[in-house]
Design brief:
This protein has a 5-stranded parallel beta sheet with strand order 2-1-3-4-5, with helices on both faces. Strands 7-10-13-6-14 form a 5-stranded parallel beta sheet. A two-stranded antiparallel ribbon has the order 8-9. It contains 20 helices and 16 strands. Helix 3 links the parallel strand 3 and strand 4. The chain is an alpha/beta fold and 456 residues long. Helix 2 runs parallel beside helix 3, helix 13 packs across helix 15 and helix 14 runs parallel beside helix 16.
């Protein structure tokens, strides 16, 4: 692809000499004799680099630089000056100039600058593409009522410093919610550090969270910062917080209270500024009653509760998720690009997904790899997925729940939510119809993290 360069200089000799050199090196070049003409050309030509004279009649170079950078913050501009001073160089740098060259121009210096500037621009563009790919990977996809309500709550809480407890079944996307909160917060440019509390042995979780000093235990061969220190200024996501050991819970509670950690084997306290987000697929009130989770830590974490709906409650999102995964697998993972028939989409939307969005994503990857043709059809779904469809009344999803206690809770939550919606979230009227004390209904609303949907 031809690389484009714009030269803005009021000296005909400079325009001609620089233009000839650049064209000889294979660049597409346009020239302008003044600032106004250069600004107009920039908008239509969209150059990747601009050579801009500092001293020109009318609009001078520094003013043009300022306007170019306002119009395009990514503009790469090299200033040219016959009388460069330190003050001019400082001002040009503050306005966003890439570099400054003195007249008469040295050919070798120009060529070196060009090579470095385009390498830098290429690196910047690659980083931008990488960020887009990463963000697409963690995108929350869906248009269902539940997802729109979820996104609305994320938007509200992200801008605050509040701690959030994210609950939901395995595979629903609790990590995606945590990342979305981080991206929407004032800490977005700081680290997002994730800890899976269920994947780390109980004897190592404290070292993982708080770090350790060399020699503090067998295997501690060097000082090591923990995840709290790594997340300083940013966000720490404690996934599967319900599986954290009791001693680690006590230490996390102290950090939340004081904002100070001490490495294992160390004596020096370290101040940390961390926003903590936590997630679990367990009912923490039951864990508290069983003595496995600290009630005071629960209240510290559960400032704002967010519940991620399971896939069975938002089946209308399945076609959107399927198309998203097909595109993602082709672009990010390099798998063959495949289409899918409407009948196949309908069949996928009818099936039970006990593993939620995670299971659906893995199934789409299997279909992309093993489908017989360029387009995934209903026969491919039958052959490669082959699970029974959901019960039409929605009872099938409840019947798949493992224990009777979990079944009762899931059924009670669905029933109360339906009744509250039916009475437009009038708690007093709902409690009267249910023949339930209003205080009990409020407790159940809090227990199940029920929330009124405000999305149009």
């Amino acid at each position: 692809m031809t690389r484009r360069i714009l030269v803005i200089d009021d000296e005909p000799g400079i325009r001609q000499a620089l233009g000839q050199l650049l064209e000889y090196e294979g660049f597409e070049v346009k020239v302008a004799s003044g600032g106004a003409e250069g600004m107009a050309l920039y908008g239509s030509f969209r150059p990747q680099l601009v050579f801009l004279d500092v001293k020109m009649a009318g609009l001078d170079g520094l003013e043009v630089l300022k306007r170019l950078r306002q119009a395009d913050p990514n503009a790469t501009v090299v200033m040219i000056s016959g009388h460069a001073t330190i003050q001019t160089a400082v001002e040009a740098t503050q306005l966003g100039a890439y570099d400054i060259l003195e007249k008469p121009l040295d050919t070798d210096r120009v060529l070196v600058l060009l090579r470095n500037a385009f390498e830098n621009r290429q690196l910047t563009e690659e980083n931008a593409r990488l960020r887009e790919t990463i963000e697409a990977r963690y995108e929350i996809v869906g248009r269902s009522f539940g997802i729109r309500a979820l996104l609305e709550r994320i938007e509200k809480v992200a801008a605050t410093p509040a701690r959030v407890l994210i609950t939901g079944e395995n595979g629903t996307g609790k990590e995606l919610v945590a990342r979305a909160i981080h991206r929407g917060s004032a800490r977005a440019k700081k680290p997002f550090v994730e800890v899976n509390c269920a994947a780390i042995p109980a004897e190592l979780i404290e070292s993982e969270l708080f770090g350790h000093m060399k020699g503090s235990f067998t295997g501690a061969i060097a000082d090591r910062a923990g995840r709290f220190e790594q997340a300083d200024g940013g966000t720490l996501f404690l996934d599967e917080i319900g599986d954290m050991s009791a001693s680690a819970q006590a230490k996390v509670l102290r950090v939340l209270q004081d904002g100070v950690i001490t490495r294992i084997g160390g004596s020096k306290p370290v101040q940390v500024d961390v926003r903590v987000l936590a997630a679990t697929n367990k009912h923490l009130d039951e864990e508290i009653a069983a003595g496995r989770f600290r009630e005071d830590l629960y209240y510290r974490l559960n400032v704002v509760p967010i519940t991620v709906p399971p896939l069975r409650e938002r089946r209308e999102d399945i076609p959107l998720l399927v198309m998203h995964f097909l595109q993602q697998l082709a672009l990010r993972d390099g798998l063959p690009a495949r289409g899918i028939t409407d009948e196949a989409l309908r069949r996928l939307a009818e099936l039970e997904w006990l593993g939620n969005v995670r299971e659906l994503r893995n199934t789409i990857e299997r279909l992309v790899i093993l489908a017989s043709g360029a387009t995934i059809g209903a026969a491919d779904v039958e052959r490669l997925v082959g699970r029974r469809a959901a019960e039409p009344a929605g009872l099938g999803s409840l019947l798949e729940i493992a224990t009777f206690e979990e079944f009762k809770q899931a059924a009670e939550r669905a029933y109360l939510l339906a009744k509250l919606r039916a009475f437009d979230w009038n708690v007093s009227e709902t409690a009267r119809v249910l023949d339930m004390p209003r205080s009990n209904l409020y407790k159940k609303i809090e227990r199940y993290a029920l929330q009124r949907e405000t999305v149009e």
